[in-house]
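Worked example 2:
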Amino acid sequence: MVFLSLTMNYLAHAYLSFNQPHLLSGNMISDFIKGKKQFDFDPPIQQGIKLHRAIDHFTDTHPLVKEMKLPFKEKYGLYAGAFTDIVCDYFLANDTHEFSTHEQLAAFANETYGSLEDQLHLLPETFQRIFVYMKQYNWLYNYRQATSIQKSFAGIVNRAKYMNDSITAYHIFTENIGYFQPLYNEFFPLLKSHALLTIENLRKND
């Protein structure tokens, strides 16, 4: 099922591009770009690639995120981070401080698809193929639904070696929402500030 491709926290990366088209493109394609391939793109898209990596590093090493990983850690080991990324996008999609209504989230998703579509000819074919499903199945908006999170978890498991159980991950998520929520509430403003500072520094050093 193509919907299962929703296995990365695309919503956070899109949102933390702050409606800047080239930053958005680089931020969304970063995981498809290896090594020196980033230099094949125009400097503004390169900045988006670097922004994505700065967001990932800040997230992966932050103590609050390490706490969020703990419920997944025993069962899923190193994959705990992948599940936690999706959990963060669920909370972001339902965060009324960032999207005051579901309609605002829907509008953001549509604007993001439009911006990416305008630049699609500049982006890697691997991302172009994924984008078709991202738009068709409205991934960015659907992060707000628990059923979509369940499908995302299944996608992680389907792509991982030696794992075949996503139901347990989903149960961990639903049973620990009250544990995750305050950690997300504390962490996301810090991540947002870090992303803004990263953009400022990238432009100073350009």
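Confidence is low (pLDDT under 50) at residues 1-6. The chain has one domain: 2-28+42-204.
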